[in-house]
Write a structure and sequence with these properties.
Helix 3 packs antiparallel against helix 5, helix 5 packs antiparallel against helix 8 and helix 6 packs antiparallel against helix 7. The protein has a two-stranded antiparallel sheet. It is globular, with a radius of gyration of 15 Å. The chain has 167 residues and is mainly alpha-helical. The protein has eight helices and two strands, in the order H-H-H-H-H-E-H-H-E-H. The chain is 63% helix and 4% strand. Bound molecules: calcium ion (2 copies). It comes from Nonomuraea antimicrobica. This is EF-hand domain-containing protein. Pfam families: EF-hand_5.
Length: 167
C-alpha cells in the first residue's frame, strides 16, 4: 500500500477539512482539536488539551498566512495545491502540532501510545482505518503494541513535508 504525492496532497487536504465543507478554515482545526480531546477523554483545560488547541491554532495561522492568497479566510484546494508545507514552514507552524498530537495520545505520559488511542486519534481525524492500522504496524517496529511519541512525531513531520511516498 502506498500513497503517491498527488494522492497525499488530496488526502492531507481532506484530513484538514474536518467539517467536510470543501475548504479549510479555522473551524476545521478547532473541530479537529475538540474531536481528538473528546475521543481520548482529555479535558480542554488540561495542559495537553490546551497545548493541542494552541498547536492547532498556530497550524491554522501558518496555513492562512502562506496559502490564503485571496484573503477570504478560507483555503480552497487550488490554494492549498500551490502551497507546500516545506521544512521552514513546518518548523515555525507545524512543529508544535507534531509534538502536541502524539503527546495528547500518550495518556499515561510514558512516551508510548497504546494501539487503541492511536486508532482513536486517527478515526477522530477521519483517517481511513486501513491506513491507520497499517501505519500503526509500521511504527510499532518492536511489535510491542505501542508506538513511541517520537516516532509518531517524525511520521507527522514527514507526512506534511516529505516528497516521497508514505504508508
Ligand atoms: Ca472545512
Ligand atoms: Ca482563500
Amino acid at each position: 500500500m502506498s500513497v503517491s504525492s498527488p494522492a497525499r496532497l488530496r488526502m492531507r487536504f481532506d484530513l484538514l477539512d474536518v467539517n467536510a465543507s470543501g475548504a479549510l478554515t479555522s473551524a476545521d482545526l478547532a473541530l479537529f482539536a475538540s474531536r481528538v480531546r473528546s475521543v481520548l477523554g482529555v479535558p480542554a483545560d488540561a495542559p495537553k488539551g490546551r497545548a493541542l488547541t494552541e498547536a492547532c491554532l498556530r497550524f491554522w495561522a501558518g496555513l492562512a498566512e502562506a496559502a490564503d492568497q485571496d484573503h477570504d479566510g478560507e483555503i480552497s484546494f487550488a490554494e492549498y495545491s500551490s502551497f507546500s508545507h516545506d521544512a521552514a514552514w513546518f518548523a515555525e507552524y507545524g512543529e508544535a502540532y507534531a509534538v502536541a498530537v502524539p503527546a495528547v495520545c500518550d495518556l499515561d505520559d510514558d512516551g508510548r501510545i497504546e494501539r487503541d488511542d492511536f486508532l482513536g486519534l486517527h478515526s477522530a481525524a477521519g483517517f481511513p482505518l486501513t491506513y491507520s492500522t497499517k501505519l500503526f504496524s509500521d511504527l510499532d517496529t518492536g511489535g510491542t503494541g505501542r508506538v513511541s511519541t517520537e516516532d509518531f512525531a517524525r511520521f507527522l513531520r514527514a507526512f506534511y513535508t516529505g516528497a516521497g511516498d508514505l504508508l
